[in-house]
Amino acid sequence: MAAPELPPLTQPDHHSPDQIPGPCRTADPQRWNVSVSLGDIAGLVAAVAFVALVIAIAVPLLKLGAVLEETRSTVAQFTEHTLPVIDEAAETVRGANAQLAKVDTVTTSAAEIGTNVSALTTLVSATVARPLIKAASFSYAVRAVVSRRRGRNG
Q1: In terms of Cα–Cα distance, which of 37, 44, 39, 17 is closest to 28?
Q2: Residue 73 confidence class, pLDDT cut points 50, 70, 90
Q3: Of 57 and 7, more confident
């Protein structure tokens, strides 16, 4: 079975060459009335300079984007490696605080023992020292009396 034949694709010609306004009416270059002013050339140079400027600015911006991406990556790695160290340091501080609490308990107990020993010393001094002084005085008096009696008898 043969495919139906289609008409060739052409765009309709809405305007005849005489109806097109401006210098592009015909394909004949001699009929083109093209004049380029100094302002047109300056505008073209300014447009090219602007494109060059955009390209010159785009290159450092792309490099800056790469630097910022590397910085983000470095900060992420730094955070990844630093957080465990900070957690470990916090755990160490907690352990040190627990040990200091135990040392504080021992120090408090030692201070209480010192106070108790001082009180015991005062009690022993008051309880034992006076009777010992009296006993020593009594024994001195007895020796003195005995030695006087021996001196008279002897």
Answers
A1: 17
A2: very high
A3: 57
Nearest to 39 by CA among 51, 47, 31: 47
Q: Give dist(CA 143, CA 147) in Å, integer.
A: 6
Residue 65 — φ and ψ, nearest 5°?
-60, -40
Are 49 and 58 in contact by the 8 Å Cβ rule? The answer is: no
Q: CA-CA distances (angstroms) from residue 125 to 47, 129, 140?
A: 110, 5, 21
Tokens representing 123 are: 């009690």
Size of the chain, expressed as the number of residues it contains: 154
d(CA 17, CA 25): 5
pLDDT tens sequence across 134-154: 888 989 999 988 888 887 775
SS3 19: coil
Span 98-139, pLDDT tens digits: 999 999 998 999 899 999 999 988 888 788 878 888 888 989
**Would you give the end-to-end CA distance of the chain in angstroms?**
175
- Helix-then-strand count for the chain, H and E: 2, 0
Give the position of tokens 């809405």.
Answer: 14
Alpha carbon distance 93, 106 (integer Å): 20
